[in-house]
Amino acid sequence: MTFDIEIAGRSRSVAIEPAGGTRFRVTVDGHSTLVDAVRIGNFALSLIVDGDTGSSREAQVVPAGPGGDILVWLDGQIAAASVDGRRARRGRGDAGRGSQGAQSIVAPMPGRVVRILVGPGDEVTARQPVVVVEAMKMENELRSPKAGRVKDVSVAVGASVEAGRVLIVVE
What we know:
By secondary structure, the chain is mostly beta strands. It has a single domain (about 1-170), classed as CATH 2.40.50.100. The chain has 1 helix and 16 strands. The protein has one helix at about 85-90; strands at about 1-5, 10-20, 25-30, 30-40, 45-50, 55-65, 70-75, 75-85, 105, 110-115, 125, 130-135, 140-145, 150-155, 160, 165-170. An 8-stranded antiparallel beta barrel has the order 1-2-3-4-5-6-7-8. The protein has a 4-stranded antiparallel sheet with strand order 9-16-14-11, with no helix packed on it. Strands 13-12-10-15 form a 4-stranded antiparallel sheet, with no helix packed on it. A hairpin with a 2-residue loop joins strand 7 (about 70-75) and strand 8 (about 75-85). The longest helix has 7 residues, at about 85-90.
């Protein structure tokens, strides 16, 4: 399978091929490596990458909206990504990414809500911080996927949340 993945405005071509058992050959922009990947829950993977001296890394990938929008957590960092985003945007004309309909902001991993920065009815801009979730002793600031109005805040400060739980809806 081959994907176009866009992270922070940079597009990469990623091909993933089975290599036997739990191993996969992952090719990013023409550079290949072997990865041993094992699912550990609904959204988490344990990864052992050749060249990483056999160390295990945990990654979590959570759907973040319609189409191919996802949140990726790796080594304590969160990044928004769009899978095959250029193809999806081509079909939407000039509407722009995420501009149509309500968009959900979801918890990228299990954690605890430490701050809610908006309320129902508030106007937000694209990429504006809206909620902070603490996971694995790190605070993760989640941002609005688009400009709009906050339709719903479905959590409270101090609430424990599971990965993929809808926290805020922006329309």
